[in-house]
Amino acid sequence: MPTFIRGATILAMGGRHQSTPFTGDILIVGDRIEAIGANLPVPEGATLIEGAGKLVMPGLINAHLHSGEALFKGRYDNLPLELWMLYSYPILGAKALAERMIYLRSMVVAIESLKTGVTSLTDDIFEAPRQSFSQLGAAVQAYDDAGIRATVSGHVMDRDFLDSIPFSREYVPTDLQAEVAKLTPPTTEEYLDFAREAYAAFHGRSGRIRFMLAPSAPQRCTVELMQAVNELALEWKVPFHTHIVETKVQGVTGPALYGKTLMRYMADLGLMHPGTTIAHSVWVTPDDIALMGEAGVSIVHNIISNQKLGSGIAPVRDLLDAGVNVALGSDGICSNDTPRMFDVMHACGLIHKVTTPDYKKWLSAAEVLHACTLAGARSALIDREVGSLEVGKKADLLVLDLNTVSFTPRNDILNHLVYCENGSSIEKVMVNGEIVVENGRLTKIDEAALLAELQAAMPSFNAYHAGVERANKAFEPHFDAVYRRCNQTDLGIHRLIGASDIWPAKAS
């Protein structure tokens, strides 16, 4: 049965109207938009949604998150990435998480995402000590049950973790180094076999689930693994999704390990192309930015996470001017600590106003919204399907009430969306032509029962994880020394992190 939205204010973010709101109708047949325009005929038997006083816009796209952190939501603060990872991505002591806990953990992400207007997410899923096919299946099942669109991965690294951190061998005691050396990462063939099995099982499920390849970062993966994974990504037309220069430590890593920046290292390996999506890109040089633009890569700007971890501010205007596709992401659910993309848009719209006094270079609300819709879809290689309201595209959309405090007195709707709205005006969320949220309630699952089940399981999990934290605390003073040393290094790039002004030239 078709759905007809009549007389709404429409923000299409694509096609002829782009970011200019207009009044019109939308006809949805099956999972796709059949027609958009003014005074369209209402098909017989169609489900009618009156659009007067409503805004219809594309669903928001979270282009980079880690659902594995959802069990640590609200747990950590005032730690930079290198120390924070000791507890959220522990080196020692982690054991395989039960599939039911992964399902519930993923549901927490799906529920909050959908209720706040996210219709599509890219989940780079890490499991310690390594991910199994059935563990990934539990996350996929949760997203499938909730009704969200998701691109999921098997996050992988195959190098000794200490070899990915510059100077760590100088600071980490040999007994701890020996413990790390006992860990056995997957081989290239083992990961490729896992990826092929996951792709065959999950890619295309329900018309909403996709699989992608996600080597963690160039310093954490062997050349053999990255190049083999890249070949599969190109063959399957899925993203090659990775992390590059999130922190100043990582800015130091390329020159320290390879004698060149990590972006140049990636380019020299043939791994920079339009299918490459890079999370963060904070500590990039002008030459890096030119390389990225020439290659046509996407980056995901995780502005709230980068603030919470003190990582810096990505040079978004320079990246956009170079032709880089810039999407927005929440990043991990304990480095943010939420997948709410209205929050991310708000932060993005504000933060870049303090990076330069040249106000003509500040981001506009239209640019921020584009990053959270069509650019996000482009980063996941699904922009021909979603990201804007256009005839033939999937019906992933939001219906918001314009008669709310957030839209009063209703001046520029784009500014209201970026600076005033927080998701509370959402009445309906549609994914793949199906209403999955109605008046704040998920239609496909029992939210209260799922949350109660997870709450009941948390005391046991927290007791286990407290032991993991104790085991990894032994690394903290040594990683602290690495962090301080790297933040005293002059890269010739300023990202509003003044660590060299905080500490003396040499750490005692």
Structure description:
Keywords: Hydrolase. The protein contains 19 helices and 17 strands. The chain has 508 residues and is α/β, with parallel strands linked by helices. Strands 1, 2, 3, 4, 5, 14, 15, 16 and 17 form a nine-stranded mixed β-sheet that branches. The protein has a four-stranded parallel β-sheet with strand order 6-7-8-9. Strands 10-11-12-13 form a four-stranded parallel β-sheet. Helix 3 (133-146) runs parallel beside helix 6 (188-202), helix 6 packs parallel to helix 7 (223-236) and helix 14 crosses helix 16. The protein is globular. Residues 497-508 have low confidence and may be disordered.
Features:
alpha/beta, 19 helices, Urease, subunit C, domain 1, disordered C terminus, 17 strands, 508 residues, 4-stranded parallel β-sheet, globular, 9-stranded mixed β-sheet, single chain, 19% strand
Largest sheet: 9 strands, mixed
Approximately how much beta-strand content do the residues carry? 15-25%
Low-confidence stretches: 497-508
- Radius of gyration (CA) equals 23 Å
Fraction of residues in helix: 25-40%
CATH class of the domain at 3-58 and 392-442: Mainly Beta
- What is the helix tally? 19
Distance between the termini: 71 Å
Mean pLDDT: 96
SSE class? alpha/beta
Tell the overall outline.
globular
CATH homologous superfamily identity of the domain at 3-58 and 392-442: Urease, subunit C, domain 1
**Number of separate strands:** 17
Q: Based on the structure given, which CATH architecture of the domain at 3-58 and 392-442 is correct?
A: Roll
At CATH level 3, the topology of the domain at 3-58 and 392-442 is Urease, subunit C, domain 1
